[in-house]
Specification:
Elements (H helix, E strand, L loop, with lengths): L12 E7 L2 E6 L5 E3 L9 H5 L6 H20 L7 E5 L5 H8 L3 E5 L3 H11 L3 E2 L11 E5 L8 H11 L6 E4 L17 E2 L1
Bound molecules: zinc ion.
Zinc ion binds next to loops.
Length: 192
């Protein structure tokens, strides 16, 4: 059927799971599970107002606080707190924490509404695309974002260009083998 794996390029793809209109496929070569066709989500204010049945802003603060442990992890790999970039920075709650720890922060966020929120409330600058970032990052974090990307391979290549040599990157993503995530499938574009 002409489907190709974004990770390894294999065309050995089998149907994995169907939930309503969502069709999940699995690459038999590397195990990547992804949605096809991929939804074209509009990350506007409505998306954040109904973030899995709840408002994102309601959840964001506690999410950011629980993500501070990732900042501490990153600290273990850097000598100085230079430029810190978050990919999928949403409304900037985690970057605000990073800023408070002395990092210079840069967000990358598709949603204009969320970028404007981060600027207005925390004075955090975010760009729509990675290739607009004109500073080299000393650390990058990407929390539960890679599964929303239509072309994660491309994003990783773009990231390479904006990172200082040897700087750390921390990526988290849901595990499809964890039953809990079967029920949140509607919110994810693709599962590595
Ligand atoms: Zn593959």
């Amino acid at each position: 059927m002409g489907l190709k794996c974004n990770l390894c390029g294999s065309e050995n793809i089998k149907k994995h799971l169907q939930k309503g209109d969502l069709h999940l496929y699995k690459c038999k070569s590397c195990g990547l599970v992804f949605l096809y066709p991929q939804p074209n989500l509009d990350y506007n204010k409505d998306y954040f107002d109904d973030y899995g049945g709840k408002s994102y802003l309601e959840k964001a603060k506690s999410k950011a606080l629980s993500s501070v442990k990732f900042l501490e992890k990153i600290d273990g790999y850097v000598n100085l707190r230079g430029v810190f970039s978050e990919i999928g920075s949403a409304t900037g709650f985690l970057l605000k924490e990073a800023k408070g720890k002395g990092w210079k922060t840069i967000g990358v966020e598709k949603s204009k509404w969320a970028r404007d929120y981060a600027k207005k409330h925390f004075d955090i600058v975010s760009y729509e695309n990675i290739d607009e970032v004109n500073l080299k990052a000393d650390a990058v974090i990407m929390l539960n974002t890679i599964e929303h990307l239509n072309d994660p391979q491309r994003t990783i290549q773009d990231l390479y260009d904006i990172m200082e040599k040897g700087s750390p990157i921390l990526i988290t993503t849901p595990n499809i083998n964890n039953i809990r995530y079967i029920f949140t499938i509607a919110f994810f574009t693709f599962f590595p």
